[in-house]
Amino acid sequence: MVSILTEERLKVVKPVISKPQKEKYIVEKKLKKGEFETSSDYELRLEKEKIRISEKNKAIDEAYSIAQLQYNQLVNHSLAQYSELVRKNKQESVIRDVANQSAKRAINMLFGDPKFKNVKYDADNEQFTADLYSVLNSFSMKVTIPIPINEAKEFKKRINNRLFVPSVQFNVVLGKLKFSNVSVVGNEFRQSKDFDIAKSKDTKFAYYEFIDTHPKSSLSKKAQQRIDEIHEAEHIARIKAEKEAKIRAQRAAEARAKEQQAYMKEKFVGNKVCMSGSMAFGFINPTIKGFVESKNGNNIQIRIVDTDGTSPYYNGVELRANLLIWDSYSSWKHCN
What we know:
alpha+beta; flat
């Protein structure tokens, strides 16, 4: 079987390239003179048609010449590649590599995916015994796997969960495969599947879980790289959010300061003033408008002119148009 597979792998098929086909020439058709066409116009039309057909056939020749040139170049290149592959496949090192690959393929075709069953631990001798068998063949044998007692429990757990699988080595003796050795390796198929699951979730927890399950897998490095990338992205996002929060807080403080300045600005009799409902009434937010009628120390008298369509109570009084009230100087601001 190895010989057959090797021969198939080393076989080089000579390239077959189709020759270009030339398009048929356009044949000149006899044109009839029109009933209402003068002889000179008819002769001119005939001459134009001859020129058109000649140019078309010339273009066909040119296209065919280009196609032939490209065909010859492709043939030369393909034959050179073919000759190089034939020469290369005759080299001993290439034949040996292909034969090794074919041997691995033959073993897999004959014995399939080897598995363990009846895995038991001998604590006194600190070793596992198990039945090594193939799902595609009657191959089966007892094997021993030395494992320190402090690692045995976790090892068996990984064997049972198919995180560890057997790797069987064979030798060729007198043209036949003969069992040589068995080792325990990580289940690459399971690792790949679990890594795809972690990638689909794309969270630090998912990648940490993969690393804990497959600590010696080559994919654990990729998992750790992705964890670092996510951590860095979170760090950048956190810094950005903190910066934006500071900007918002600064703008809010500036707005409050500006608002406070508007309330503290000097007011004169006749000035139009406003009071924000959010400051005075809480859950409702009308803007109360009025005019300064009088001043007395830190208090001013306001004539209400607009309650923004509401009838709110303020200091125990229902505000309405033309109502006169006294209030704190700083409770009202200039407004348009």
